[in-house]
Amino acid sequence: MKSLLRAEGVTVRFEAPGGAFDARRTLTALDEVSLSLTEGRTLGLVGESGSGKSTLGRALLGLQRPSAGRVLYRDEALASKSPEALRRLRRELQLVFQDPYASLHPRRTVGAQVVEPLEVHRPELSRAEREAKVAQLLERVGLGPAHAARLPRELSGGQRQRVVIARALIAEPKVVVADEPVSALDVSIQAQLLNLLLELTSGGGLTLLLISHDLKVVRRLCAEVAVLYLGRVVEQAPTPDLFAAPRHPYTHALLSAVPRVGVPVKERVVLQGELPTPLDVPTGCAFHPRCPRYAALGEPDRQRCRTQRPALEGAPRAVACHFPLGE
C-alpha cells in the first residue's frame, strides 16, 4: 500500500530555560522517529503523557519544524515548500486539537468557525452551498443547525469537541491528525463520532492518525498501532497482532492496565517509577529503568540494555527491544 505521509528520522528538540545558576538544557521531545501513514488507513499512536505524541502529530502536519530528519507528504518534503504552498496544503492536512475550547474563537459563532475552511479553500462555492455543507456536517457529528448560531461558551465540552471535528472535516481533507478527539465526550456521543470516523476511513478517502490514551478506541478504529515512549517508537504492528501478543515490555504494561472481565488486578503489570524527564533520557534502551524484563536479566545482558539503544526492526511487526517478549 502507498505511503501518503511519513516521518524519516524526525527529531524535535527544545531549549529549556535554566534556573538562576543553571545553564539552559535541551529537551528531546522526539528522537529519530520514523513513521508512515498508509493512504486510506488509520494508525493509532499511544503512550503515556509526555511521550511526544502531540509533538509528533504537529511535526507530521508541518506545524512543528524538526530539529533533524524530514517529513514527506506524497514523497515531497514539507520543509522544502514555500509558505504559500503550505497554506494550500492545509485543506489536505488537518488537525483536531486536544483542547476544544482553546482552539475555538470565543466571540465567533460556531457556524462562522466551521465554514471558515471552505471560505479559504473552496472560494468557488456559493454562500448557500457553504451553509448547506455546514448544516449537513453539524448534523453528522451530533449537533443541529441551531448550534451554528451559538458561541463556544454556550456549548458543553463535548459539543465544542464536535465543532472542532466538524471544522477539521468540512474541507474534505486527505489526512487528519486527531489528538484525543473523543476524550471529552460521553459514551453515546463517542460511539457516534467513532462510527463517523469509521465511515470516512472505510471508504479509503481519509487517512487518520489517532492519538489516544483510550486503548479500546484505538483497538476499534485503527488498522495499525505505534507505541511511543520518551519520544521513540518502541513497537509498531497491525492492531490484532499487537493486542493479541505485544512484544515490547512497555506495550505489554500498557495493555495490561486496561481493565478486563475475568482478569484479576494482581495479574496486571505495574511499572515502577514515573516516566523519566525528556531533559534527561536514560542511555541505551530508554525504558530499562522501569522494565520488568530488565529486572530479571543478569549481566552482561543488563549492560547491553543500559548502553546500547535497540533499533526498531521487523516487518510487518517492528519492535525496539534487545529481549522482546516471545523470544
Please give a structural write-up.
This protein is α/β, with parallel strands linked by helices and 327 residues long. It has a domain at 3-17 and 25-92 and 173-244: Rossmann fold (3-Layer(aba) Sandwich). It is 31% helix and 21% strand. The protein is built from 11 helices and 11 strands. A hairpin with a 2-residue loop joins β9 and β10. The longest helix has 16 residues, at 187-202. It is globular, with a radius of gyration of 21 Å. The two termini are 29 Å apart.
Quick tags:
4-stranded antiparallel β-sheet; 7-stranded mixed β-sheet; Rossmann fold; alpha/beta; 327 residues; 11 helices
Give a brief description.
This protein has eleven helices and eleven strands. The protein is of the alpha/beta class. The two termini are 29 Å apart.
| Number of extended strands | 11
User: Uncertain spans, ≥5 residues at pLDDT below 50?
Assistant: none
Query: CATH superfamily assignment of the domain at 3-17 and 25-92 and 173-244?
Result: P-loop containing nucleotide triphosphate hydrolases
Tell me the structural class.
alpha/beta
Number of helices in the DSSP assignment: 11
The oligomeric state of the chains shown is single chain
Largest sheet composition = 7 strands, mixed
What coarse outline follows from CA principal-axis ratios?
globular
